[in-house]
Amino acid sequence: MISIPIWLLVILVLIGIWSVLDKILIPSTRWVLRRRINRVIDEISTRLQIEIRPFQLTKRQVLIDRLIYDPKVVAAVQAKAHARQMPREALMAKVTNYAKEIVPSFNAYVYFRIGYWLAQKIARMLYWVRIGTIENQQYTNIDPNATVVFVINHRSNMDYVIVSFLVAERTALSYAVGEWARIWPLQTLIRAMGAFFVRRNSKNKLYRLVLERYVYMATREGVCQAVFPEGGLSRDGKLRPPKMGIIDYMLRSFDPDTDRDIVFIPVGINYDRTIEDRSLLRSLNPLAEQRSRWFVTKTSIRFLMRGFWLMIKSRWQRFGFACVNFGPSLSARDYCRQNGICFNRMDNAARFIQVESLCRTLMSRVSKIIPVLPVPLVAAVFVDDPEAGFSAFEVEARVNRLIEKIETRGAQIFVSNRSRVQNIVTALNMLKIRHLVTETDGIYRVDPDSLDVLSYYANSISDR
Description:
Blueprint: H1 6-45, H2 54-57, H3 60-68, H4 71-84, H5 88-102, H6 108-126, E1 128-131, H7 136-140, E2 147-152, H8 158-167, E3 174-177, H9 186-192, E4 196-197, H10 205-220, E5 225-227, H11 245-251, E6 262-271, H12 277-282, H13 293-312, E7 321-326, E8 330-331, H14 332-339, H15 348-369, H16 374-384, H17 392-407, H18 420-433, E9 437-440, E10 443-446, H19 451-459
Parallel strand pairs: 1-7, 2-5, 2-6, 3-4, 3-5
Antiparallel strand pairs: 6-7, 6-8, 9-10
Helix pairs in contact: 1-6, 3-5, 4-5, 4-10, 5-10, 6-8, 10-11, 16-17, 16-18, 16-19, 17-18
C-alpha cells in the first residue's frame, strides 16, 4: 500500500486525461475533420468555375511567415529601425501582430457547409433574392488561371451575404472586412470564410505595407476576391467616388507580360429596403446626436425580436427584392496593352493617375448595371413631386413612364411586364407600412419627415 495526498492524485488524474486527449482523441478528431474537409474540397472542386487555389489551403502560420519575411517588408523594417535607432526585433514584433490580424484562415468546410447555409437562410428570409443579368458565356471564356475580382457597389452590410450566397456555386470569395467585425466569435467565423481584416483609416506606413503585400500575395496566387471601391456604405443612395486602395495594391506590382491576368467583373446590387437606411442618412447630419453603443445594441435586439415574433405569428413579410447584376468583365492585361501602360514600372504619381482612371471605368460599368427595383421607382415618383398627391393608378402610370424613359438608356430593370402592376402596388404598400407615405381616401402623399428616406431610394436609380 502506498499513500499519496489527494491533491497529488488529482494532478496525476489530470495529467492522465491530458495525455489521452493529446495523444489519442485530439489527433483522431483532427484526422476526421481533415478527412471531411478534403471530401468537401474534392466535391466542390468538380462544380466550381473558379477553383479554390492552393494558397487558400495553405496553413495560416505558413502564410503569416511568408508575409513577415517578405523582402519588401523586411527591407522596410530594417530602414525604419535604422532611421529611428530602435531594435529590429521590436518592429518585427509589430509586423507579426499586423500579419496575424490580416491573414485569414480559410476553411472550405465552414465556407461551403456553414457559411453558405447561413447566407442562404438569412438572404431568403429577408428578401426575394434574384439575379437580374449575368454574362454566363463570357465568364466561361475567362482564363482559369486568372485572378477574378468582383467590383461591387456598397449599399448595405448585407452585400457580403447576398453576393457570397449567389456566387457560392461558382467560387469562394475573399473580402476585405472593416474593424467593426473584429469581435469574438464573429471574427473567427469571418476568418474561416476567407475574409481579411483592414484598418481602413490607418496612417501607419508599416501596417499599410504589410496589408499591401498580403493583397499582392493573394492576387498573384489567384485568390478570387470581392472589393467595394467606394470604401464604405453609400450614405445618400448615390455611388460614392472610388477609392484606389485595394485595387492599387493589386496592380502596384502587376506585370502584364509575366503575371497571371487580373479580371475585374462589375457587380451592381440594389434593394427594395436597406436595413441601415435611416442610420446612414443620420450620419450625414453633423448636428445629429451621437448614438451610444447601448442604444445601437438595444435597437438591434428589439428589431430582431420583433422579426422573430412576427415569424412565430406567421405575419413576417420580406423587405422586398434584393437583386444583383453581373456585367461584362475587364482584363487588366488587355487594359494595360490597349493603353500602353505597365503599372509596376511607373512612379507613384503616374501610377495613381492610371489606377484612378481604371477605377472610374469600373465604377462607370457598375453604375450601368445597378438594378432598377420597384421601391426605388415608386420613391422616385414621389420625390419628383413631393407636394402632390397620387392615386394608386396615377403612381402606376408615372412608374410606367419612368420605366420607358430608363429603358431607352439601356438600364437593367427588374420589373416584369407580367407582374408589373403587382410589383408597383406591393412597393407602394411597403412605403405605406413604413410610414414613408400616407394614404387618405385613396390618395398617397409624402410624409415630409421621410422625404430624405424616399430620396435615398430614388438616388439609387438617379443615374440610370
